[in-house]
Amino acid sequence: MIDRLARNWVYGGFLAGIMLLALLPLLAWSVSWALLLTLAQLPIYMLHQFEEHDADRFRRFVNAQVGHGREVLSPRAVCVINIGGVWAMDVLAIWLAVEAGLGFGLIAIYGVLVNAVVHIAGGLVLRRYNPGLVTSIVLFLPVGGAAWWAVQQTGEATLLHHAIGLAVALLLHAAIIGWVRRPR
Predict the structure, then answer these.
(1) How far apart are CA 42 and CA 34, in angstroms?
(2) Using the 8-state DSSP alphabet, how is residue 183 labeled?
(3) What's the rounded Cα separation, in Å, for the pair 106 and 38?
(4) Fewest beta carbons less than 10 Å away: which of 53, 114, 116, 153?
(5) CA distance 23 to 125
(6) Is the pLDDT of residue 154 over 80?
(7) 101: region left, alpha or beta (phi > 0 left; psi from -120 to 50 alpha)
(8) What is the pLDDT of residues 6-34, one digit of tens each?
């Protein structure tokens, strides 16, 4: 069962992302625009993950590009990274944004923005498409950028919030790179 979940999590995430986006308008009158955009980070990430991981695209891409045919990223690692590293991080960031201050929503927002930069930079360096590039441009930059701007405009985002958000996003990406490049 664990292996089946590790290989198919992205399809449930994609459907959940659509449902969560469909529910967001119900909150539009009861939460601030900045919080609404912060809440949108998780479902747009779920849609992005579908582009990345449908048909095992990202894992195969990384294994071919970085591993040169060796498995440097397993289905289980991809599942843990995305559910534990992205979904759980976003849920925690949203809870913190509601309970401890909107500035903590920058954790989820920087997660999206840093991931977009990684995909775009990778596309430019390799001069080719990489799984996740389209949604990075079409969803992450506009929605993540709008969320960053909206949170910033509230005055609730301190330099510390920005530092925490950016550090968490960079550390998550560094951990993934470290995992993929670890000696075997």
Answers:
(1) 14
(2) -
(3) 8
(4) 153
(5) 38
(6) yes
(7) left
(8) 999 999 999 999 999 999 999 999 999 99
